Amino acid sequence: MPATHDLSAQDLALLAGRAGLPLPADRLPLVTATVNGIHQVVSVLRDIPLGDTAPAFPPAPAAVTTPGHAPAP
């Protein structure tokens, strides 16, 4: 897992201010913890070697059936 650099509460307050988002001081610790948690998860996802994995597509509507109903022709 790559090293992640957590944002400090002061960093987050500055970024929120620049974005025009009011962030009350009493919410700052919770928002900081949430942002850093999301950043850690995204960092792990970036390391998954997908290579030439094709995108997954949902099944065609004709292949999807509802119980008690016949498939579409």
Tell me what you see in this structure.
This protein is an all-alpha fold and 73 residues long. The protein is built from two helices and no strands.
Task: Give the SSE layout.
Elements: H1 9-18, H2 28-46
Please describe the structure with a list of short key phrases separated by commas or semicolons.
73 residues, mainly alpha, 40% helix
Distance between the termini: 49 Å
The overall pLDDT, averaged over residues, is: 83
Total beta strands: 0
Low-confidence stretches: none
Helix proportion? 25-40%
Instruction: Kindly estimate the percentage of residues that lie in beta strands according to DSSP.
Output: under 5%
What's the main sheet like? Answer: none
Shape label: elongated
Instruction: Look at the helices and sheets and give the structural class.
Output: mainly alpha
- Rounded to an integer in angstroms, the radius of gyration calculated over CA atoms is 22 Å
Number of helices: 2
Number of discrete domains: 1
